[in-house]
Amino acid sequence: MSWGTELWDQFDNLEKHTQWGIDVLEKYIKFVKERTEIELSYAKQLRNLSKKYQPKKNSKEEEEYKYTSCKAFLSTLNEMNDYAGQHEVISENMTSQITVDLARFVQELKQERKSNFHDGRKAQQHMETCWKQLESSKRRFERDCKEADRAQQYFEKMDADINVTKADVEKARQQAQIRHQMAEDSKADYSSSLQKFNQEQHEYYHTHIPSIFQKIQEMEERRIVRIGESMKTYAEVDRQVIPIIGKCLDGIVKAAEAINQKSDSQLVIEAYKSGFEPPGDIEFEDYTQPMKRTVSDNSLSNSRGDGKPELKFGSKSKGKLWPFIKKNKLSLKLGATPEDFSNLPPEQRRKKLQQKVDELNKEIQKEMDQRDAITKMKDVYLKNPQMGDPASLDHKLTEVSQNIEKLRLEAQKFEAWLAEVEGRLPARGEQARRQSGMYDGQGAPTANSCAQDRESPDGSYTEERSQENEVKVLATDFDDEFDDEEPLPAIGTCKALYTFEGQNEGTISVIEGEILYVIEEDKGDGWTRIRRNEDEEGYVPTSYVEVYLDKNAKGAKTYI
């Protein structure tokens, strides 16, 4: 099977076919190139997606990744980043192993095709020239033969005519001989041209064209083989990254299997556990007795039954506690966080203190390592003075030692606070006593300023405990200051949306659906001051009540 023998007369069709083959190869190159661009774009989008959902450093999001589910999500993002890298590898390998090589091969193919068909056209032109020469000698031979025949006929006619002179007959005979000789010469030339043409034609169809077409056939077969190899490479490039992509997917599955719901639940406990005891039962209040006590006083005194005398406050002592509540709220609004984290519940305070102690210990160890390094360098300078001056390190050594001492004092301070908190946390009965409003052993009245964490249904109310676990309140200390305080006028009414137990000083308990008077609206701190009767007033979370302000009241705001 050879194009030279089978397709000897299909020069033009072979030229079109080989051009079509090159076009197909270029189309495949374009396909692979677009695939590489898609892979790069896909990898870029995957990396951007992974980066978009990565936790920001030193942000609240970073703290959330202590949960196993969030860790698994972080692992998924990292694996997707590696997954994107494999698509970049696909693009790079396809570009280097297919696109570049095929582009170079196409250029070589075009040059070879051009050269082969140039040789073919040259051979065709040579055959056309030989054919023209043959036709020319043939026509000349034909013409000379006709001329010789006419000259012979004219001679015979003159020779038969008796009226023609002998000289004219001889002249006609010579002319006939000349024409006959010219015909013989033309015949010899035509014969030679014919023999030469046949030889050239034989070489053209049996030597030159088969050789040229064989080269073209080999070129076309190389093109077909090369495109097949490129398709195999195309598949192999994808196949090579499948194991790594599989590992990425296995990593995602492994991270998902590592999710532990119990562990996450325990972390929630550790994150939000306050360490307080739940409040006790509220005792029945007998209003048939002539006793005027606020519901907050009753909840504070009656919910704790240690046998100690009850803490009773009149209307004046109630007013005397509000300045403390306002002061605490003001400090919280200003963002002032106590150094010992006393504004946090016990368990959260312990965690913060432990974290601070660990950080300080790490800084101390870092400074000690730096001191050891400077000391070793100083020893080297002492042994080899040419390397440096030992005295130049004294200032740095002193500075590091001072830093270590400062850090140690700081650590001791936090360790003392930590020991104080850890000493209290196990004693649950003691926590209950700290939350109650009973007197201490010396008979002085105390009020709990360490509020138990509470949240309203909408999450807007959280009581913070103050720096000290107990606040001793002596009513007589403030009697003179607030004796002349006049009760504030009501500026509206409110309806309790939820039941609230006012267990802390300055708060008042309300029952769901109860109607009360508003004497001071929310100042932006989440608290509204209300009054039940002449002697019972206090603060409740604003989210617990629905306020109806009197537009004509002094200082009232209009709510739409």
Strand content: 5-15%
What letter string, H or E per element, gives the SSE order?
Answer: HHHHHHHHHHHEEHEEEEE
Total helix count?
12
Please state how the strands of the largest beta sheet are arranged side by side.
Answer: 6-5-4-3-7
Sheet with most strands? 5 strands, antiparallel
Oligomer: single chain
Derived from helix and strand composition plus strand pairing, the structural class reads: mainly alpha
In helices, the fraction of residues equals: 55-70%
Mean pLDDT: 78
| Backbone CA Rg | 55 Å
Please tell me what the overall shape is. Answer: elongated
- Gap between N and C termini: 96 Å
Low-confidence stretches: 291-335, 426-484, 555-560
The strand count comes to 7
Task: Give a description of the structure.
Helices cover 64% and strands 6% of the residues. With 560 residues, the protein is mainly α. β5 and β6 form a beta hairpin. The longest helix is centred in the N-terminal third of the chain and has 93 residues, at 68-160. 22% of the residues are buried.
